[in-house]
Structure formats: C-alpha cells, structure tokens
Design a protein that fits this description.
Layout lengths: L2 H4 L3 H16 L17 H12 L6 H15 L5 H22 L2 H26 L10 H23 L4
Length: about 170
C-alpha cells in the first residue's frame, strides 16, 4: 500500500475537526440572550465520537488528547481539562463502536447524550476543584443539544466520509 493511499482522506478528518473548533468558539450574535450560550453543543466531542466509531484504527486517545488541548487553548480554560474529558469520550466511544454502528441514529443520540453528559460532568468537576464555576442545571444542556443534533452531524460526516473515501 502506497503512502498516499494510507493518508487518503486524512484531510477530511482534519477539516471536520477544524470546523468543530471554529463552531465551538464562534460567538453568538448580540440579539441572542446570554442563556443561549449554555445551549452550545459540544461540536468537538460529537466529531470525535463520529470518527472514533467510523475509523477506530485511526482516531483514538492521542487525537482526543490533542483536540482537547486545542479546545483548552481556544477557550482559555485550564490546560488539560478538555483533554481529559475528550480522552474519556474517545475511550467510551471506542469501547462501544461496534454496537453503536448497529444502532439507529436516534439510539446513537441517546448514547451521545450520556457520553457528552459525562464529559460535561468531568469539566464541571475540574472547574469546581479549581474554584471557577458554580453548579447549575443548565450545565448539562449541551449534552441534550448534542444528542438532538447528532443525527444531522452523523449524516453529514458519513456523507463526507463516503464521498471522499475516508478509510
């Protein structure tokens, strides 16, 4: 197998993560109430979950840690906080990837709700230890929004993977 065959489609994966980074830090327009900032889905976690279940031999813990460090730098949070959370996301997704492939997207959305909710709890736990945040039930809202958006994210990334023959 040639080297160009092995890297075929890697740019699609990188581009999807780049888009997820941009969507995770883009600011909302001024006419949105401040409470909508709590409803921002976890784009990086959803893209990571998709690529882990689609290509478990290529995307895993190392990519999750790297993406987490990038998210920490972009959001200005404690270095390693999102890295730890995304490692847990990648580990759970990689241990469930064979089952998740068989489920319909609405059942996958329920699993995404649980995985992203656990990620949010890890981030809250680290924030609480460092004395940054106070608990609010709105803290778990990104997991609900991510679960609701999962079918469209899954369909979009699957179409891109098939179109550009990412393996």
């Amino acid at each position: 197998m040639a080297a160009s065959d092995q890297s075929h489609g890697l740019w699609v994966v990188a581009l999807s993560f780049l888009l997820a980074f941009v969507l995770s830090v883009i600011s909302l327009p001024d006419f949105f109430p401040a409470a909508f900032s709590y409803a921002r889905p976890e784009w990086v976690a959803m893209v990571l979950i998709y690529w882990v279940i689609a290509t478990p031999h290529r995307i895993g813990i190392t990519v999750a840690w790297s993406c987490g460090l990038v998210v920490d730098l972009l959001r200005g949070s404690l270095l390693g906080q999102h890295g730890l959370a995304l490692i847990v996301v990648a580990y759970i997704a990689s241990s469930l990837y064979q089952r998740m492939r068989m489920f319909p997207t609405w059942q996958q959305g329920a699993i995404v709700f649980a995985i992203v909710g656990l990620s949010q709890l890890i981030i809250y736990w680290i924030d609480n230890i460092s004395g940054i945040d106070n608990w609010s039930l709105l803290y778990l809202l990104p997991s609900v929004v991510s679960a609701l958006l999962w079918p469209s994210v899954y369909a979009s990334l699957r179409a891109a993977r098939r179109r550009f023959n990412v393996s």
